[in-house]
């Protein structure tokens, strides 16, 4: 008899019935409806917009938000949904992260009642798509230096600037855009059909191919005063949205790792080398055992952070611990699993290298590993070493 890696940690026993149900539902959606098409989407560098309705029907967009058509689940359930989506492909999890944790959360947390009524119900169903423009060509890790500028013209705002690497940029109906004003950084909701707004897709990606990544150009975009997010003041506003998306990644990255490990265990069990199964060799077992330890420890960390988030106790530095550790271990697991698959591991037929390539983006976005190391370093020493 063999065991599933996570059963060695008794992970299921840490979840309640509703959390297990949500996880099972998302896993079935991914396995039955999405997984068969993922290699093709990865190869053709597309993610069809139509899947938004399917994800919306399951309540996956903004699922941990309350009201406005959102499911209102706890944080652990949201994390488990991210994990199952990323067990398919990081592009799927990104799609849901950006819609729910960045676009919807920015409106939910900082928007006017009118903005919430206008956008949240449609974003929750997937009828509308949102994106979140913080990064610029020259300001990624250091968004405080952003050059995008919003200036007053009477009661209107005029936005000029360029955002870069924006997930769902060219498919979104509304962009949350962060810009410098005379009073510091502010957020704006830009309907993407506004004159002066254009989105150009990034091509030639070797990572996160089943995901749309775009440049946003704002050239004299005129917006009414009501387009400003009234409650967002300063850099802390966009950074607080990142906490939400980073939390999803703490769980999500482990989905890519779990799928890689399951694939490697199954492959090693059937692949014969030197006349017997690869799984029977000590070197293979050492790899599998070590990866199981990191996967299980990552899950324990994710659930611990999820419980703290549900109690309203989690801090940004604790999210950094989870994001740094779980993405770093997930990419190491995906790469190690690839070795077990030999040459077969370099094809789209098997998931580990696709996951590893995707995780290169996950290592970089939502704060690079170096930024999270420095955040933890600051928490430990009191010295900020960013500048
Ligand atoms: P610093 O002086 O530390 O902070 C400025 C203000 O912000 C507050 N703050 C936070 N608030 C909430 N959550 C956080 N995580 C926060 N971090 C900082 C802070 O208290 C302060 O508030 P106040 O009231 O005192 O003004 O700012 P800094 O300029 O020194 O920067 C710190 C640093 C480097 C940690 C920050 O800039 C950073 O996190 N950089 C990384 C940028 C990043 O992660 N970008 C992600 C873009 S979005 C994305 O990648 C989406 S991918 C999505 C997908 O496809 O899944
Ligand atoms: P840089 O900031 O130029 O960093 C380059 C290297 O320098 C990194 O290794 C970094 O860690 C290191 N470095 C930087 N500062 C320091 C320092 N002080 N000390 C030591 N090392 C340092 N952004 C959005 O706003 N919205 C999105 O939807 C979005 N989606 C994305 C999707 C994908 C697929 C990718 C790849 C990125 C996405 N991003 C998005 C952008 C992402 O957040 C940035 O790429 C990230 O924040 C890093 O910025 P950068 O690429 O400019 O790297």
TrEMBL record:
- Give the family per the record: Belongs to the acyl-CoA dehydrogenase family.
One Pfam family here: Acyl-CoA_dh_M
Q: Which PANTHER family is this protein grouped with?
A: GLUTARYL-COA DEHYDROGENASE, MITOCHONDRIAL
Q: Where is the Acyl-CoA oxidase/dehydrogenase middle domain?
A: 131-221
Family annotation (InterPro entries): Acyl-CoA_Oxase/DH_mid-dom (IPR006091), Acyl-CoA_Oxase/DH_mid-dom_sf (IPR046373), AcylCo_DH-like_C (IPR036250), AcylCo_DH/oxidase_C (IPR009075), AcylCoA_DH/ox_N (IPR013786), AcylCoA_DH/ox_N_sf (IPR037069), AcylCoA_DH/oxidase_NM_dom_sf (IPR009100), Glutaryl-CoA_DH_mitochondrial (IPR052033)
Specify the species.
Answer: Rhodococcus xishaensis
Boundaries of every Acyl-CoA dehydrogenase/oxidase C-terminal domain copy: 233-380
- Top-level division of the source organism's lineage: Bacteria
Keywords in alphabetical order = FAD, Flavoprotein, Oxidoreductase, Transit peptide
UniProt-listed GO biological process terms: fatty acid beta-oxidation using acyl-CoA dehydrogenase; fatty-acyl-CoA biosynthetic process
Residues annotated as domain Acyl-CoA dehydrogenase/oxidase N-terminal = 17-127
Q: Which GO terms describe its molecular function?
A: fatty-acyl-CoA binding; flavin adenine dinucleotide binding; glutaryl-CoA dehydrogenase activity
- Annotated protein name in UniProt: Acyl-CoA dehydrogenase
Listed cofactors: FAD
């Amino acid at each position: 008899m063999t065991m599933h890696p996570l059963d060695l940690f008794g992970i299921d026993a840490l979840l309640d019935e509703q959390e297990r149900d949500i996880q099972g539902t998302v896993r079935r959606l991914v396995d039955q409806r999405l997984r068969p098409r993922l290699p093709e989407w990865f190869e053709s560098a597309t993610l069809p917009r139509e899947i938004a309705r399917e994800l919306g029907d399951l309540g996956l967009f903004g699922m941990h938000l309350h009201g406005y058509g959102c499911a209102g689940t706890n944080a652990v359930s949201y994390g488990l949904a991210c994990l199952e989506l990323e067990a398919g492909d990081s592009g799927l999890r990104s799609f849901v992260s950006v819609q729910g944790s960045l676009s919807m959360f920015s409106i939910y947390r900082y928007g006017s009642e009118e903005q919430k009524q206008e956008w949240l119900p449609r974003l929750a169903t997937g009828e509308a798509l949102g994106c979140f423009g913080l990064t610029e060509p020259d300001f990624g890790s250091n968004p405080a230096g952003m050059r995008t500028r919003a200036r007053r013209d009477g009661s209107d705002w005029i936005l000029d600037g360029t955002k870069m690497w924006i997930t769902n940029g060219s498919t979104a109906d509304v962009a949350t855009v962060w810009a410098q004003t005379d009073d510091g950084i502010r957020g704006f909701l830009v309907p993407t059909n506004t004159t002066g707004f254009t989105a150009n897709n990034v091509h030639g990606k070797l990572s996160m191919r089943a995901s749309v990544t775009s440049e946003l150009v704002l050239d004299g975009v005129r917006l009414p005063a009501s387009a400003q997010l009234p409650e967002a003041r300063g850099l802390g506003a966009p950074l607080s949205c990142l906490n939400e998306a980073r939390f999803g990644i703490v769980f999500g990255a482990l989905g890519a790792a779990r799928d890689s490990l399951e694939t490697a265990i199954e492959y090693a069990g059937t692949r014969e080398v030197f006349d017997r199964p690869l799984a029977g060799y000590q070197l293979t077992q050492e790899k599998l055992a070590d990866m199981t330890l990191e996967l299980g420890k990552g899950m324990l960390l994710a659930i611990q952070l999820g419980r703290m988030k549900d109690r309203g106790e989690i801090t940004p530095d604790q999210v950094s611990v989870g994001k740094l550790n779980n993405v770093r271990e997930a990419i190491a697991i995906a790469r190690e699993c690839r070795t077990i698959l030999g040459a077969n591991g370099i094809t789209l037929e098997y998931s580990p290298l696709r996951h590893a390539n995707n995780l290169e983006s996950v290592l970089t976005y939502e704060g690079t590993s170096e930024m999270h190391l420095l955040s933890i370093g600051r928490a430990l020493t009191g010295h900020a070493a960013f500048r």
